[in-house]
Amino acid sequence: MRTFDRLKQTNRSPLIDPDRTERPIFVLSDRHDGVRVPWHVHRRLQLIHVSAGVLTVLTRKARFVIPPQRAVWVGPGVEHRIMGRSPFWLTTCYIEPGLVAAPDTSRVVAVDRLTDELLIAASEFGGDYPFEGPAARLIQVLLDRVPDLKTTDMSLPEPSDVRLRRITDRLIAEPCCNDTLALLAAGAALTERTAARLFVKDTGLTFGQWRQSLKLQSALEYLGTGASVTQAAFEVGYADVSSFIAAFKLLFGKTPSQILNP
């Protein structure tokens, strides 16, 4: 995993209101030992990026767990919150609406090495830099690159149906739960058949697909705290580590060790 040594030598971004800063694009950086930020909105487009550690980003429609070299686009006015169980290095890019085409939905993108370094460099002068000169040129290069970041499938849609939310809320609280859908549905005043139909209609995923994605997202959170692959697998209800690694690689495109050490 990327070391925090460089961050420890970097001053935290000054406390500013990102919605009132004059610069149309800027990056704020900070280290957190763990955080639970309440629901909030910004008028600017955001690229919420992790240079080290693992971060969970929630919107009202989806759940995202991002490791290093990943980021989440959050559109202007989209209500969201962030949570982290362990230390992480956050560099958030704020962009005035209209400067780049805003994604129609929140999504995860892969951040290449150059863009990662540009974000880190831009965070050193935060929201106060000259409109002309080296800093402004660096910002322009960053602005040229961020629209082309490639989308990667690391999101989990949240159901809107209140009855399904009773099921998903329990699974989020207990990712190791392996109860059958019939049992979970009964606790939500649904039949198994109705619950299965609603999952596909509301999330685009079958119940089995949704639960497996949740387990693997939760495992990524555990891995971010320093848990071993075996510990993470058991924490989310896998009894076979090999099956866990295979499922993890199928969803995220990399093994647990590869995704935490890009």
> Can you tell me the CATH architecture of the largest domain?
Sandwich
Main sheet record: 5 strands, antiparallel
Cα end-to-end separation: 8 Å
Supply Rg.
Answer: 19 Å
In helices, the fraction of residues equals 25-40%
In spatial order, strands of the major sheet run: 1-8-3-6-9
% residues in beta strands: 15-25%
By CATH's scheme, which homologous superfamily of the largest domain applies? Answer: Regulatory protein AraC
Total domain count: 2
Derived structural class: alpha+beta
Q: Which segments are poorly predicted (pLDDT under 50) over 5 or more consecutive residues? A: 1-13
Number of strands: 10
Mean of pLDDT: 89
Q: How do the helices and strands follow one another from N- to C-terminus? A: HEEEEEEEEEHHEHHHHHHH
CATH topology (level 3) name of the largest domain: Jelly Rolls
Count of alpha and pi helical runs: 10
So what's the CATH class of the largest domain? Mainly Beta
